[in-house]
Amino acid sequence: YTRAIKMNPHSAMAYYNRGVNLRIEGRINQGFVDINKALEIYPDYLEALIDRGIAYQQRGQLREAAQDLQKALRIQPNNYKAIISLGVVAGAAGDYKSTIKLMDRALQINPNDYAALNNRGYAYFLAKDYDNAMRNFNASLSINPNFPDALHNRGNLNYNIGKADLACKDWLQAAKFGNKQAEENLKKFCR
């Protein structure tokens, strides 16, 4: 991509692709510079907007993340990745109602997305709507019984509603599949 940029320094696609590769290599800041350059050249570059929105979210820059993802959705209103990502940003900002609505929208497009079901369940959990949270965690796990995030979250819910034995079972399963938070909960709350 560096060669492509030298040949055509106005190629938004070359900057975007190099930026993505730099981030994959762990050179996050350099990748961010290239993605910004791609958007400077072509402000409506959908993939670059979504990618930068996700990068902003990972950096804790939620306002900037939401702006990029909302712009992406103005360009392509049913872009699944932008909908899911904006839902995650809304949740990180504490706007659980928006997260639920965005996950509803995503699940209309793909009803079998176990991660979206888990995300919606987690938003319900944080909003203290435990019945809907449990329904979503169970639905996620009915699609992928080994999904560690849903196991961990359902364990947290079970613990909160006084079912420590079920919480420990969920956390044990989640830990087997690599969920570090579940491992910590096992050490702290289960014998």
Task: Annotate the secondary structure layout.
Elements: H1 2-7, H2 12-24, H3 28-41, H4 46-58, H5 62-75, H6 80-92, H7 96-109, H8 114-126, H9 130-143, H10 148-160, H11 164-176, H12 180-189
Helix pairs in contact: 2-3, 3-4, 4-5, 4-6, 5-6, 6-7, 7-8, 8-9, 8-10, 9-10, 10-11, 11-12
Structure explained in plain terms:
By secondary structure, the chain is mainly α. 79% of the residues lie in helices and 0% in strands. It is built from 12 helices and no strands. Helix 8 runs parallel beside helix 10 (148-160).
Compact description:
By secondary structure, this protein is mainly α. Helix content is 79%, strand content 0%.
What is the string of helix and strand elements?
Answer: HHHHHHHHHHHH
Number of helices: 12
Beta strand count: 0
| Biggest pleated-sheet summary | none
Features:
single chain, 191 residues, elongated, mainly alpha, 12 helices
